[in-house]
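During the second half of the funding period, the structural biology subgroup turned its attention to how the target accommodates small molecules. The most pressing case was zinc ion, which had performed well in the primary screen but for which no bound structure existed. We therefore specified the complex as follows and requested a full 3D prediction, including the ligand pose.
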Amino acid sequence: MVVKIDVSYIPNNIRCIILDVVDRVVPSRKESSDKMITLYNEKNAEEIKHILEEELRLKNLSDYVISENTHDESEIAVLKKGDIEQLGLYVCMHCGMPFESEVQRTVHERMHYF
Ligand SMILES: [Zn+2]
């Protein structure tokens, strides 16, 4: 399958870091633009998400999260935490999972307390 990484919401320096790790770690044929990195012949978006999350953790970029597109499972996006609610997404502060409403997120977040 094709996996797309939306990099249109992040500044240039973060985009470079993402491109760099993708170049190093992901062997599939790829195309990239200012807005999108497209990876061909990937098994799933989940694996790419984990690679990018690990890189953000290593680089201490905890302001950024990898979000799944709730409408398209082949697409993930790199987002800055503060920008997410403006985009209409609500992200769990514990695990980074995105939700389309604050109610859904609140219900999910309770799970972390038990
Ligand atoms: Zn969570």
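Two results from this model are relevant to the next phase. The domain at 3-81 is CATH 3.30.1360 (Gyrase A; domain 2). Residues 92, 94-95, 97, 108, 112 surround zinc ion (CB under 6 Å).
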